[in-house]
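Forum: Protein Structure Q&A
Topic: Joint prediction for protein chains with partners

I've read a bunch of threads here and the consensus seems to be that you should model interacting components together rather than docking separate models afterwards. I'd like to see that in practice. Below is the full input, 731 residues plus whatever partners are listed. Could one of the regulars post the assembled result?
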Amino acid sequence: MLSIKNLHVNIEGREIIKGLDLEVKAGEVHAIMGPNGTGKSTLASVIAGREGIYEITGGEISFKGKDLLDMPVEDRAREGIFLGFQYPVEIPGVSITNFMRTAINEIRQYKGLEPISAGDFLKKMEEAKNLVGIQSKLTNRSVNEGFSGGEKKKNEIFQMAMLQPELAILDETDSGLDIDALKIVANGVNALKTEANATVVITHYQRLLDYIVPDFVHVLFNGKIVKSGGKELALELEAKGYDWIKEDA
Amino acid sequence: MAKENNNIIDEVTTSDYKYGFYTDIEMDTAPKGLNEDIIRLISAKKNEPGWLLDFRLKAYRYWLTLKEPTWAHLHHPPIDYNDIIYYAAPKKKKELASLDEVDPELLDTFNKLGISLEEQKRLSGVAVDAVIDSVSVKTTFSKTLEKLGIIFCSFSEAVQNHPDLVKKHMGTVVPYTDNYFAALNSAVFTDGSFCYIPKGVRCPVELSTYFRINAANTGQFERTLIVGDEESYVSYMEGCTAPQRDENQLHAAIVEIIAMKDAEVKYSTVQNWYPGNAKGEGGIYNFVTKRGICRGANSKISWTQVETGSAITWKYPSCILMGDNSVGEFYSVAVTNNYQQADTGSKMIHLGKNTKSTIISKGISAGRSNNSYRGLVKISKRAENARNFSQCDSLLLGDKCGAHTFPYIETENKSSIVEHEATTSKISDDQLFYCQQRGISAESAIGLIVNGYAKEVLKKLPMEFAVEAQKLLSISLEGSVG
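Posted by a regular:
Agreed with the consensus. Here's the joint model:
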C-alpha cells in the first residue's frame, strides 16, 4: 500500500532523512519509534505532502502504486492518507461539523460521488462520536479552539473515524494524554482497524503499544530505519533504552 | 514555506469579477458636467417642489467652496467632476402592474445576479424596491405594507407623495454641509429609497433594496432616508453588484436613519461594486456617508455591512446616540483584494446618558490591497455611564497587502467605559495544511477560514443575506467556489 524507497529529505540544507525504506501493506499496523529529533515527524509530514521547509532530495514514495511526490496534499488525503497531528491547529469560527462536511464532500467529489446526504452525515457523526466518546456539544464548537490536549487528540481520532482512511499515520498521538484518554484513543484506532486499511503509529514511548499492538516495530535513528522487528522489539526498547541501538548504528 | 503559500493565495485570490456584465437599456441622459443648469434639469425631470431645488442649489454652492478630503488612507487619480453624467434614467414606460411587464433584459440582469424578483416574492416574502441606475423600476409588496401605514418607496415617489415627511427629516442627520461628498450628493442625488415606519408598528418583512450602477460614465448618487417612529421596528437590507467597466465610476451615496423613542432600526448591507480588474484598473469609487441618529430614549440603530467590492471604499456608518439609554451597533466585514483600497469604520457619538455602543470590525486583506479601519468613539460631557466596546481585527492573506487601524477615542465624562481591542493575524501555513490534509482544497480552506473569522458579523445579517454574504466572501477571495 505504502512504499518508501531510499528517501532523502533536507530541512534548510541539513539532511534529516538519509535513505529511508519502508513497506506497509493493507491490514498491517506499524510502529515507528526512536529518540527525539531523528526525523519521525518529518517522515509523517513528508508522506502527507507538507511543503515549505521540507526538501525531498532523493528517493520515491508511492501509495497504492501511485507516485505521491507529485501529488498535492489534498489529493493524497482524498486517496486515503490521514495524518493524526501531534499539534492539531485551531480554526476559529469553523465548526467541526462544517469542517467535516466540507472535507467529506470534497473527497466524495474527487471520487465522482454526490455530496453526502444530511441524514447519512448525521448518522456517521453519531457513530464517530460514540467511538471516541466525545460529547455532542463538542462538534458544534470551532475546530480545536479552546480544546484541552486530550480533546484535541480525541478530535483527531473522531476525524479519522469520519474519513475512514486507508492509511492512518498517527504522529505522537499519545503525547500529552493521561491513561484514560490514551485508552479511548487506542480503542478508537483498534475499532477502525480492518483488513483493508493500515496504520502507522509514530511514538517514542512503548506505552501506547500496550493498547495498539503493532505487527512491526521500526527504530528510526539518525534519518534511517536501523532496526525492524515484531512487537517484542518495542518491549526491548522499553527495557534497554535507545543507546544500544545507537551503538549498533 | 511562505513562498509556496503565497503562490496558492495569489492563485485563489485573483479570480475575475463574477458579476461583470451590463444591461443594455435605453437611457435618457443629461450631458456631462456639473453646473446649476444640470441641477435645475435634474430637479425639473423629477418634477420636484421648489424647496428641494433650493436645497440642491444651496448644497451645490457650498460644495463649490470645498476641497476633496485627503485624510483617508486612499490613493486614486484626481476625479474630474465635470467628466461625469449626473442624470440617467431608463426611458419612461407605462406603469407596471406585474413582473411580466418588466423589461425582460432587466429581469435577466436580476437573474444573473441570482436575485430574481419572482423567487424573492414567492420564497422569502421580501419586499424589493429595485433601483436600476437612477429611477426605481419596480416596487413590490407596497400594498401589504400600506395597510400597516408603512411607507417604502423610491425617494422620488416620497418627494411627490409624502413631501412633508421628506422635508421634515431630510438632511437632519447628514446636513449638506457635512462633508465634500455629502454636499455633492445633496446637490445631484437622483433617487434612492424612502422608508417610514409609523408609531408602534413592527415591520413584518425585511425591507430590501438592490442597487445597481448601470450606465457608462454615470455617477450614482443615491439618497436613502429611513425613519422609525416611536416604538417601531424595521430591518432594512441593501445590496448591490455592478457591471464591469473600464472607467472609474463615482458613487457618493447618503443614508440617513432616524430612530425615535423606543424604536429600533437594523440596517444591513452587502456591497459588491465592481472592484476593478486584477491590475487595479477600473472599479467603483465609493464615497458614502451613512449615519443614524437615536433621537429618542431607548432607541437602537445597528449597522451590519459586508464590503467586498469597489476599487475605493470610503465609508463610516455612524450613530449619534442622543436619547438616553440608546444603543448603537456597527458590525463590519471588509474584504480587499488585488489593488482595492478600503478606509472604513464607524463613529459612535455618545450624547445621552447610559448610552451603549459596540463596534466589531473584521478586515480581510489579500493581493496588494490596503484595508484600513478608522473609527471614532466620542463620549460627551453629559453622557453619564456611557459604554463602548470596540474590536478591530485584521486578517492578512499573503505578504503584499496592508492592514491599518486608526482608532480615535475622545471622552469628556469620567463615568464612561471605553474598551478597544485589536488583533492582526495571518492565515497560517499550519491551518492551510491541516485543512488540505483532510482533503479540502486550498481555495475552500481559505473560504472556510475567512468565513469562520467573519462569523461574528455574518451571524448578525438577516438569513437570506447571510447566505449571499458567505458566497460573496468566497467569490471575492477564491477562483472556483460559489
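The helical segments of chain A are 40-48, 73-79, 96-110, 118-132, 149-163, 179-192, 231-240, 243-248.
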